[in-house]
Structure formats: structure tokens, C-alpha cells
């Protein structure tokens, strides 16, 4: 099992993307977050392999009941353990 650490900045960008706080990313990063959010399963897996921090944060926001709260804690600088192998569609 690999370990993916989500930096506070990434958490804040993903929160902003989903309208749940945080702050906006730059154009390139926002486009990446949007691609991960909208990708089909095959392409999402490729994006997650290339950009694990953004990918994991998007998956948390979309599929984990506590994902938004977890990202909010990360964005505030708390150290939060995040399961790197979630049982979510991708």
C-alpha cells in the first residue's frame, strides 16, 4: 500500500473547485482538478498515477463521507491520515 500525502495547498484548491472553501488554483491546476473530476474510470486511473496528490484529494471530495471535512482539516494545516487505497470508483 502506497502513501499519498495531500499538501494543504492541494486540499484548498480541491475545496474551492467543489465550492466548499479553500482558494482557487491557477488555470493549469484548476484544469487538472476538473479533468480528474470529470474523467472516465480508465483516464482517471492514468491521471491518478501521474498526479496522486490532486487525484487523491478529488476522490476524497467526491466519494468519502468525511472527505470534505478531511480536506478542510488538511487545508488548515492539520496532519491527517488518509487511506491511500480508498474503495471508490476509478
Q: N-to-C terminal Cα separation, in Å?
A: 16 Å
Radius of gyration: 12 Å
Order of helices and strands: HHHHH
Q: What's the number of helices?
A: 5
Q: In total, how many domains does the architecture comprise?
A: 1
What is the global morphology? globular
Helix content: 55-70%
Taking pLDDT < 50 over at least 5 consecutive residues as the criterion, the unreliable ranges are none
> How many β-strand stretches?
0
What class do helices, strands and sheet pairing give?
mainly alpha
Integer average pLDDT: 90
* β-strand amount: under 5%
Question: Can you offer a commentary on this structure?
Answer:
The chain has 90 residues and is mostly helical. It is built from five helices and no strands. The protein has helices at residues 8-17, 27-38, 41-50, 52-63, 67-75. The radius of gyration is 12 Å and the shape is globular.
Keyphrases for this structure?
mainly alpha, 90 residues
What order do the helices and strands come in, and which of them pair?
Layout lengths: L7 H10 L9 H12 L2 H10 L1 H12 L3 H9 L15
Helix pairs in contact: 1-4, 1-5, 2-3, 2-4, 3-4, 4-5
Amino acid at each position: 500500500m502506497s502513501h499519498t500525502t495531500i499538501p494543504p495547498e492541494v486540499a484548498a484548491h480541491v475545496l474551492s473547485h467543489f465550492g466548499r472553501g479553500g482558494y482557487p488554483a491557477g488555470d493549469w491546476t484548476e484544469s487538472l482538478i476538473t479533468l480528474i473530476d470529470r474523467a472516465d474510470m480508465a483516464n482517471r486511473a492514468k491521471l491518478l498515477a501521474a498526479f496522486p496528490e490532486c487525484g487523491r484529494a478529488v476522490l476524497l471530495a467526491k466519494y468519502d463521507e468525511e472527505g470534505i471535512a478531511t480536506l478542510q482539516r488538511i487545508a488548515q494545516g492539520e496532519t491527517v491520515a488518509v487511506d491511500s487505497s480508498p474503495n471508490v470508483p476509478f
